[in-house]
Amino acid sequence: MQSRSTLWDTYIQQSHTACTKIEILYNGEVQYTFEGENSLVTEGQIGYDIQSAIRGSASITIEDSTGNFVPSEMTSLLAPYGTEIRCYRGIQYTDGTKEYMSLGIFPILVLVWR
């Protein structure tokens, strides 16, 4: 079980400001973080199924009007060749600080560009 503050336990049970963070990992090292103002993540879903061979899955939508994150080669940041994403759900407290809990690490398997 992940460690968390007692403040988390209090806030999670009441109305609060939720926040998210997505880290892009390669070889277990964080290469980029989508969070706050620099986040291009517009939506996402994470699901778990204990009966499935693959227990957890994530679907993340990134809107990149600049095209800077569109993979152009195998070593590109979001290329599905060994790259993973670590997803977090968090709480933004009234003083502006944020606390996150990891939802899991998922491989990038499929990319759809529109």
List the defining traits of the structure above.
114 residues, mainly beta, 4-stranded antiparallel β-sheet, two-stranded antiparallel sheet, 1 helix, 6 strands, 5% helix
Short description:
With 114 residues, the chain is mostly beta strands.
What does this structure look like?
The protein has one helix spanning 6-11, and strands at 17-26, 29-35, 41-48, 56-62, 83-92, 98-107. It has 114 residues and is mainly β. The protein has a 4-stranded antiparallel sheet with strand order 2-1-5-6, with no helix packed on it. It has a two-stranded antiparallel ribbon with strand order 3-4.
Structural class: mainly beta
Widest beta sheet: strand line-up: 2-1-5-6
Would you identify the regions where 5 or more consecutive residues have pLDDT less than 50? none
What is the chains' assembly state?
Answer: single chain
Query: What is the H/E order?
Result: HEEEEEE
Per DSSP, the total helix count is 1
Average per-residue pLDDT, rounded, comes to: 86
Portion in helices: under 10%
* CA-based shape: globular
